[in-house]
Amino acid sequence: MSASMLDGTTSLRGTADPDRTAAQIGAAINVEQHPLDQIIRAERMPHIWCPGCGIGVAMRAYAQAILDFKFPVDDHVVVSGIGCSGRVAGYMNIDSYHTTHGRAIPFALGLKLANPKLVVTVFSGDGDLVAIGGNHLIHAARRNVDLKVICVNNFNYGMTGGQAGPTTPLGARATTTPYGNPELPFNLPYLLAASGANYVSRWTTLHVRQVKEDILYTFAKPGFTFIEVLAPCPVGFGKSNNIEDGLEEMELYRQRCVLATDGDVRAEELDIDLREERPIYVGRFIDRDRAPYQPVVIHAPGGAKEG
Amino acid sequence: MSTKRVRTGQHFMSGDHACAEGALAAGCRFFGGYPITPSTEVAEHLARRLPEVGGVFIQMEDELGSIASVLGASAAGARAMTATSGPGLSLMLENLGLGVILELPIVIVDVQRGSPSTGLPTMPGQADIMQARWGSHGDYEIVAYAPWSPQEMFDLTIQAFNVADRFRVPVLLMADEVVGHMVERVEIPDADQIECWSRKRPEQPPNGSFAPFEAGEDLVPPMVHAGEGYRIHYTGLTHDEHGYPDMSAETHHRLVTRLVEKVRRNADQFTRVEGYHLEDARIVVVAYGCTARSARRAVRLARRQNIPVGLLRLVSIWPFADEALRQLVPDDATFIVTEMNLGQISREVERVVRRPVRGVFHAGGAMISPEPILQAIQEAAQ
Question: In this model, does residue A65 exceed pLDDT 60?
Answer without folding.
Answer: yes
